[in-house]
Amino acid sequence: MSTSPRPYRLLRNLNAKIASVPMILTALVIFVGGTAWTVFYSFTDSKLLPRLRFVGLDQYERLWSTGRWLTSIENLLIYGVLTLIFSLVIGFLLAVLLDQKIRFEDTFRTIFLYPFALSFIVTGLVWQWILNPEFGVQNVVRSLGFTEFVFDPLYDPDIVIYGVLIAGLWQGTGLIMCLMLAGLRGIDEDIWKAARIDGIPTWKTYIFIIIPMMRPVFVTTLVIIMSGIVKVYDLVVAQTGGGPGNASEVPAKYVYDFMFAAQNLGQGFAASTMMLLSVVIIVVPWAYLEFGGKRRG
Amino acid sequence: MNSVKLALGLLASVALPSVACATDLEVTHWWTSGGEAAAVAELAKAFDATGNKWVDGAIAGSGDTARPIMVSRITGGDPMAATQFNHGRQAQELVEAGLMRDFTELAAKEGWADIVNPPSLLANCTLDGKIYCVPVNIHSWQWLWLSNKAFADAGVPVPTNWDEFVAAAPALEAKGITPLAMGQQAWQNAGAFNVLMVAVGGRDLFMKVYGDKDEAVAGGAELGPVFKAIDDARKMAANSKVQDWNQATNMVITGQAGGQIMGDWAQGEFQIAGQVAGTDYTCLPGLGMNEIISTGGDAFYFPVLSDPEASAAQEVLASTMMAQATQVAFNLKKGSLPVRGDIDLSTANDCMQKGLEILAAGNVIQGSDELISPDTTTQINDLMSEFFNDPAITVEDAQARFADIIATAE
C-alpha cells in the first residue's frame, strides 16, 4: 500500500476502494479491453486465429453486401419492435388484471411466470413442436374438422420470424408482468382513493396517473427487454436453426457462425462491432437523457 | 457443514474421472448416427485392446456444431487427446500455429507413404513435409441412394441415372411419395449442389470452379446445366421437411422417399436397418452420370499434450487407427472405403465394391473441403440453403451470387 502523501479524499473509504479494485479491473480489462480488441481486429483478415494483417474496411464492405446479414438485421428489427410493444402491453395488462384483488392471485402469477424459468433452448424446442404442422396446432385444429386449416409459420420463410416472436413472448412476458405488478403495488393506496373521490374513471387513472408514476419501472423494463432483443440467439438456434433457408437468421447467430464455424474471425468481429454500434447509437443518447444532467441521491 | 460435504462430493465427481488413469485418451468426433456409432465402437475396441482406454467424446449435431467446440478447446488450452476433422483445410491454421503433433517419424517407421492410397490422403495431412494427421477413411459424396420399394409402389422401374430419376418424379409424387429426401441443414443442400456439379458437369468443370476459382466459369454457360439440375432437385425435395441427414436416409429406407443424394456414410444406415444393396436399395455412384468419386474423408489430429504418458498413448492410437484389422472393421461398419490399398475387402457389399472399383480405376477427384476454405464453404452453404427454401430465388440469381462467392474465394 502506498503511504506517500496523497490528497485526503483519495484515502477516504480506503477499504471499500480496495475491495472494488478487482471489479474495476475486470470491467476495464474484460469488457472495455475485449471490446477494443474486437473492434481493432475487425479491420484485419483474421481467419481461424487472430492475425495482424490489415485490410481496411473490407470486412465491413463484405458484411453489408451479404444477403444473410441484411436478412438478420431485418429480422432483428421486426422481432425487436414487436417484442417491445407486445411484451410491454401484454405484461402491463396482465399485471393490471392481477392487481384487481382477484382470488388465486398467487396461482396465476406462478403460471404466468413459469415459462421464464425455462431456458430459451427449451422454449425453442417446445414451440418447434407446437408449431410443427404434423404434430402441433395445425393437426389439432384439423382433427376438429377444419381440414383446410393451415398454420405452419416455421416452414414459411415469410412469416417464420413471427413464429419465433410467439415463443419469445411466451417466455418473457411473465417477467415483465411481475415487474409491472411490483410497480403497481408500489403506488400509494391514497392516490387511488383520491382519484376515486374526484370521480376519475379507472382506465383514466391508469393511463394519466399510474403509468406516469411508474416511469422508473418502465425504464428498467425497457432495458431488460432491449438487451434480450439484441442478444437473441439460442431461441432461434433451438427453434428454427435460422431456417428455412436464411429466413430466421439473427445478427448474433451470424457472428457466431462466422467466428467459429466458418473460421473467419475478421468477418465475425466486423458483424459484432456493428451490433455494438447499433446498441451504442440507441443507448447512449437515451442514457444521457435519462441519467445525465441531474444527480440522484 | 452439509453443504460443504455436498460441494466436496460434487467437486470430486467432476475431478476424479479425469485423474483415474494416465493413459485414458479422450477422442472427440461427431459420429452419432446409428451406423457411425457402430463404426466408432470398432475404433474404441481396437484401442482398448492395446491396454489403454478410449474415452468417447462424441459431439452431437453435425460437423458444423462440433468443429467450433473442438477448435475452441484446442485454442483455449484444454486439448483433447485426439480429434476428428475432415482433412483438408479445416485444421490448417491449428497446424500452422503449432498446436498439432507431428507424426512424421511414426509414419516413416510404419511406411504410411507406401500403404495409403490414394496418396492425396496423406498429402492432405502434410504441411511443409511433415505429417500431422492420420486419415482413417475415404468418404465420397457422389452417391444417389434409391428406394426400390418406392419405385415399385409407383410402378416405375428404378432409375439408372439422375435424368431418369427426374423423369420418374411425377410418378412418385402421384403416389404421395417425396421424390427426393433432403435434410434441411445447409451443408446437405450445398453438398447436393457440389455432387450435381461433378455428376452433370464433370471433373474438369468442378476443378475449374473450385480448384482454379474461375469466376467466369462459375457465372458462365458451362454451369447452366448444373443449376438446372439443382433447380430440379429443389422441386423434387419441396416436401421433404426433415432436418438431419439420417432422418432423410430413413425416408428412403422406409420407402417414403424415392431417393437421396448423400455421401457413402448413408450406407451405414441401410446396413443397420438390415437392408440389402441391390434388392432393397440401389446406389448410383456419380449419380449414374459421371462415375467419379471424391476422396475427402475423416482424419484424426492429435493436439500437442504436455503429459508424456498421454503423448506415448497418442502414438499407439495413431498406429492402431492405421492398422489393417482396424481399417477393415471400422470401414465395413461405416460404409466408407479404407485408406490402405493393401487390404482385402471381399466381405464388402455391392455398393462398396463399386466404390473400390472406381477408386482402383483412379476416377477420383479432390473433395471441396480440400479445395476451398471453411469461409467459402459457409457462404455456399448459406446460398444453397436459401435457394432450396425460397422458390422465389431464380436459377439466374443463384448463379450470379455463386459467381460472386467464387470471385472472392481463397
UniProtKB/TrEMBL annotation, chain A:
<dbReference type="InterPro" id="IPR051393">
    <property type="entry name" value="ABC_transporter_permease"/>
</dbReference>
<dbReference type="GO" id="GO:0005886">
    <property type="term" value="C:plasma membrane"/>
</dbReference>
<feature type="transmembrane region" description="Helical">
    <location>
        <begin position="76"/>
        <end position="98"/>
    </location>
</feature>
<feature type="transmembrane region" description="Helical">
    <location>
        <begin position="110"/>
        <end position="130"/>
    </location>
</feature>
<dbReference type="InterPro" id="IPR035906">
    <property type="entry name" value="MetI-like_sf"/>
</dbReference>
<feature type="transmembrane region" description="Helical">
    <location>
        <begin position="159"/>
        <end position="184"/>
    </location>
</feature>
<dbReference type="Pfam" id="PF00528">
    <property type="entry name" value="BPD_transp_1"/>
</dbReference>
<feature type="domain" description="ABC transmembrane type-1">
    <location>
        <begin position="73"/>
        <end position="288"/>
    </location>
</feature>
<keyword id="KW-0472">Membrane</keyword>
<feature type="transmembrane region" description="Helical">
    <location>
        <begin position="205"/>
        <end position="230"/>
    </location>
</feature>
<keyword id="KW-0812">Transmembrane</keyword>
<keyword id="KW-0813">Transport</keyword>
<keyword id="KW-1133">Transmembrane helix</keyword>
<feature type="transmembrane region" description="Helical">
    <location>
        <begin position="269"/>
        <end position="289"/>
    </location>
</feature>
<protein>
    <submittedName>
        <fullName>Sugar ABC transporter permease</fullName>
    </submittedName>
</protein>
<comment type="similarity">
    <text>Belongs to the binding-protein-dependent transport system permease family.</text>
</comment>
<dbReference type="InterPro" id="IPR000515">
    <property type="entry name" value="MetI-like"/>
</dbReference>
<dbReference type="GO" id="GO:0055085">
    <property type="term" value="P:transmembrane transport"/>
</dbReference>
<keyword id="KW-1003">Cell membrane</keyword>
<feature type="transmembrane region" description="Helical">
    <location>
        <begin position="21"/>
        <end position="43"/>
    </location>
</feature>
From TrEMBL, chain B:
<dbReference type="Pfam" id="PF01547">
    <property type="entry name" value="SBP_bac_1"/>
</dbReference>
<dbReference type="GO" id="GO:0042597">
    <property type="term" value="C:periplasmic space"/>
</dbReference>
<comment type="function">
    <text>Part of a binding-protein-dependent transport system for a sugar.</text>
</comment>
<keyword id="KW-0732">Signal</keyword>
<dbReference type="InterPro" id="IPR006059">
    <property type="entry name" value="SBP"/>
</dbReference>
<dbReference type="InterPro" id="IPR050490">
    <property type="entry name" value="Bact_solute-bd_prot1"/>
</dbReference>
<keyword id="KW-0813">Transport</keyword>
<protein>
    <recommendedName>
        <fullName>Probable sugar-binding periplasmic protein</fullName>
    </recommendedName>
</protein>
<comment type="similarity">
    <text>Belongs to the bacterial solute-binding protein 1 family.</text>
</comment>
<feature type="signal peptide">
    <location>
        <begin position="1"/>
        <end position="22"/>
    </location>
</feature>
